[in-house]
Structures are given as C-alpha cells and as structure tokens.
Amino acid sequence: MSFILNIETATKNCSVSIAKNGETILCKEIAEEGYSHAEKLHVFIEEVIAESGISVQDLKAIAVSQGPGSYTGLRIGVSAAKGLCFALNIPLIAVDTLQTLASKANVSDGKIIPMLDARRMEVYSEIFTADLEVERGIQAEIITEESFAAYTEKLYFVGDCAEKCKPVLTKENFVFLEEIKYPSAREMSKISFNKYQKSDTVDVAYFEPYYLKDFMMTLPSKKQ
C-alpha cells in the first residue's frame, strides 16, 4: 500500500493531498487573492495526515509541483517537501504543474492547453492530447491573435489566463474552460503514483523548481 503526500503551491492555490495507490483520499486547499502558502501549507500537511488516519512513517514518497509558476510559492512547496524527504528518508517526486492543470479537463477530443499567467500578455503553456500525452513541451510565450492558429481541432484552454487571453484568442475552435483556473494536489495523485512505480524521482539535495523566470526582458521605451 503506497501513501504519497502531494504538494501543489505553484499558483495562488495552496493545495495538499494524501493519495493511496494513486487515488486521492483527502485534499485540503485554498486559493486566495494574496498568497497564503507560508501560513497554510504546514497546517494542511498536518491535517491531511492526521485526518487520513496515517502517520508520516506510512508515507512512501513526497510529490511536489515543480513549476512553472510563482517563485515564492514554488520555493515554499519545494522546501517543505525536501525537509520531509530528508527527515523520513523517502524519495522526492517532481510533477509538472501544467500537466496537473491539464488533468483537470475532462474532454474526449482536441487538445488541452494549460496556461499560467506570467505578466502582461506572457504565459507559460504546454499542449496535451485529450488523453494527456504531451504534444508540445513547456514554453514561455507572448499571446497574440496568431497564437495556436495552425490548429484546426478543438483547443481547450485552462488556467488563470482567460481574462486576458480570451479577447485575443477568438477562433471558433478555441474553448476556454474558465472554471478550471488553478492546478490542485488532487490531480497530482495519479501522476505521482505513476512516477513512483517507475522510480522516477529527483535528487532531494539538488532538485530546483522549474521557474521559467524572467524568460523575456522587456526594455523600457526610449524617451523622445
């Protein structure tokens, strides 16, 4: 029996789950306008373990969102995960934040495009098939009217970028699933368990989150 603790802090959603053999048995999360990760994360970790009726010694691994996402949020999540792995001498599993986000979309056709807000019209994005196979890896890009124009099938956009991207991405085959805004530790469960079964883990000492930070330098306009 494999219990895995999943930690997702890459966005405004501070989310923690306990999974047994890839199935989420308990999840606690909160998404606020301001980041509450520093205050909530360790409380949620203690609560999900206690309410699941297990002890930390029952955990087989810790899974953490690896980004891209908030620098501060990722640092908090990874630091907590590393500390637990060191203390318990168990492996650390890194999970693609955008894959977790895409996993929340239940579609049978087309492509799923998870996008997380960077700044201005910039986003972090990835492209998945309807069965969650990666078709195009993570990119940091500026969204324009020509973005994703080569695709003729249905494209389902998820993430926190709908407000700024929907007025620009207006093709008939573009669908915004606006109710799916942030990734959650709930959807990490299956992904982390699959990685655990394959011994797909990372080095606890040297692992760093995938920030994709400052991917484009915006120069100030020259004064006339």
Describe the protein's architecture and organization.
The protein has 224 residues and is of the alpha/beta class. Helices cover 25% and strands 30% of the residues. The chain has five helices and ten strands; from the N terminus they run βββαβαβαββββαβα. The strands form two sheets. A five-stranded mixed beta sheet has the order 3-2-1-4-5, sandwiched between helices. A five-stranded mixed beta sheet has the order 8-7-6-9-10. A hairpin with a 4-residue loop joins strand 7 (122-129) and strand 8 (134-142). Helix 1 (37-51) packs parallel to helix 2. The protein is globular, with a radius of gyration of 18 Å.
The amount of helix comes to 25-40%
Number of helices: 5
Question: How are the strands ordered across the major sheet?
Answer: 3-2-1-4-5
| Residue-averaged pLDDT | 92
Rg, alpha carbons:
18 Å
Spell out the helices and strands N to C: EEEHEHEHEEEEHEH
**Sequence stretches where pLDDT stays below 50 over 5 or more residues:** 214-224
The count of strands amounts to 10
Summing up helix and strand content along with how strands pair, one would put the structural category as: alpha/beta
Strand content: 25-35%
- Summarize the main sheet: 5 strands, mixed
